[in-house]
Amino acid sequence: MQPKITRQLFDKVILPVYAPAQFIPVKGKGSRVWDQNGEEYIDFAGGIAVNALGHCHPRLVKALHQQSEKIWHVSNVFTNEPALNLAQKLIDNTFADRIFFANSGAEANEAAFKLARYYAIEKYNPYKTKIIAFHQSFHGRTFFTVSVGGQAKYSDGFGPKPADIIHVPFNNLDAVKAVIDDHTCAVVLEPVQGEGGLTCASLEFLQGVRELCDKYHALLIFDEVQCGMGRTGSLYTYQQYGVTPDILTSAKALGGGFPISAMLTTEDIATVMHPGVHGTTYGGNPLACAVGCEAFDIINTAEVLEGVQKRRAIFIEQLENINDKFRVFREYRGKGLLLGAELQPEFHHKARDFLNVATEFRVMILNAGPNVLRFTPSLIISEEEIREGMMRFAKAVEKVVNA
C-alpha cells in the first residue's frame, strides 16, 4: 500500500543528513511554489541558485518533453547530439576548448582536481601534486572535494583525508605567496564564495593568483558552480574580472533545474587525457543537455544578464527598508542575484532562525553560514514578486527580532 506522503515520513525513510522545512512543495510556476495544502510561497531560494529561470519555465518544459520522446540515455560508450550542442555553446562563449559533462558540482570539481594533478604529473613530475585552496570555501561532498573545501565541519570524521591540500585565508595574496612552490599543481577558488558567506574575491587578489600560477606552472581553477551561468550578471563571473582560469566548473543553473554539470578547460590541458582516465555513466545525458541548451540560450542574453543588476538593486532597496525598522543587517555581500545580507553581531548564529520563520510567512530564503542570509532567486523574477516576497519577509524579521 502506498504510504501517506507527509513531512513525518521523511524522518523515517531518509538518511538524517538534512533538516528540511516542515512543508512539502508539490508545484512550482515561475517564482511561486505551492505546498500540499495549497499554500503559496514566493521563492527567493531558487533551489540554492539552481532554478535560474524559475520553476517549470515553458521553454525548458518543451525541451524536456521533446527530448523525452527521442532518447533518454546512451552512456559515454556513444555520444549524443544535445551533449555536443551544449558543449559547442559553452566553448563559443568562454575561454574553453574542451568540455567534460557530469551530474553535479561536486563531480565537476572532482574531475577538475583529478585533471590538475594528472596534468602536472604527466607534464612535469610525480611530486607536483599540491593543491592550494581557501578557508570557508566549498567545492562539494565527495571525499576529495570536501577535503579541498575549506570548512572542516564538512570533512572531519571520515578518516584520513587526501594529502597535499593546503588551506590559506581568502583574498590574502601574501598567504598564497607563502605556500605556493614548484610542487603546486593548482590553486582552487570561488570568485564569490557561496556557502562560505558570499565573500567576493578582489580584483588584485585574482590578478595576483593568476600571476603566481603562471610563475610556478600551476593551474588556476575557478569553481563557478554557484556564481556562474548568469547569477552575478555575466555568463561567468571570471568575465567581470578579466582574469581567465585554466579550468572552470559549472553546475546548478546550467540545467535550469535539471541535474547537470560541466568542467571547462583548454586544448593544451585536455591533451594529457585519454580514454579510461576519467568518466561517468550519466554525464552528458541527452535529457539534461537538451534542457541545458535551452537554459543556456535564455540566460545568455542581454535582457536576462542586464536584468540581474536591476533586480539586485530592488532587493537591496527592500532590505534597507526592513533594516531601517529592525536594524538586523550589517552589510550586503555577493554579486548580482547571489546576494547575502550579513546579520548584526547580536543576531549572529541566528541565520537559520530567519530562514525557518520566513517559511511561516510563505517566503523561501537561504542562509550561507550562521551569520549571513542568502537570496538566490530566479534571474527573471518580477519586481512585483520581489516586493511582495519582501513584505512577507519583513514580517518574519519582526517575529525573530521580537522573540
UniProtKB/TrEMBL annotation:
Give the protein's cofactors. Answer: pyridoxal 5'-phosphate
Q: Which GO terms describe its biological process?
A: L-arginine biosynthetic process; lysine biosynthetic process
Q: Any idea of its EC number? A: 2.6.1.11
Q: Which GO terms describe its cellular component?
A: cytoplasm
Q: Which residues carry this modification: N6-(pyridoxal phosphate)lysine?
A: K252
Q: Name one GO molecular function term.
A: identical protein binding
Query: Which positions bind pyridoxal 5'-phosphate?
Result: G105, A106, F138, D223, E224, V225, Q226, T281
Task: List positions binding N(2)-acetyl-L-ornithine.
Answer: R141, T280
Please provide the record's keywords in A-Z order.
Answer: Amino-acid biosynthesis, Aminotransferase, Arginine biosynthesis, Cytoplasm, Lysine biosynthesis, Pyridoxal phosphate, Transferase
Q: So what does this thing catalyse?
A: N(2)-acetyl-L-ornithine + 2-oxoglutarate = N-acetyl-L-glutamate 5-semialdehyde + L-glutamate
Q: Where does the record place it?
A: Cytoplasm
Q: In which pathway does it act?
A: Amino-acid biosynthesis; L-arginine biosynthesis; N(2)-acetyl-L-ornithine from L-glutamate: step 4/4
Which free-text remark accompanies the cofactor? Answer: Binds 1 pyridoxal phosphate per subunit.
**PROSITE patterns noted in UniProt:** AA_TRANSFER_CLASS_3
Q: Which superkingdom, per the lineage?
A: Bacteria
Q: Which family does it belong to?
A: Belongs to the class-III pyridoxal-phosphate-dependent aminotransferase family. ArgD subfamily.
One further remark on this entry is: May also have succinyldiaminopimelate aminotransferase activity, thus carrying out the corresponding step in lysine biosynthesis.
Q: What is this protein called?
A: Acetylornithine aminotransferase
Q: Which organism is it from?
A: Gilliamella apicola
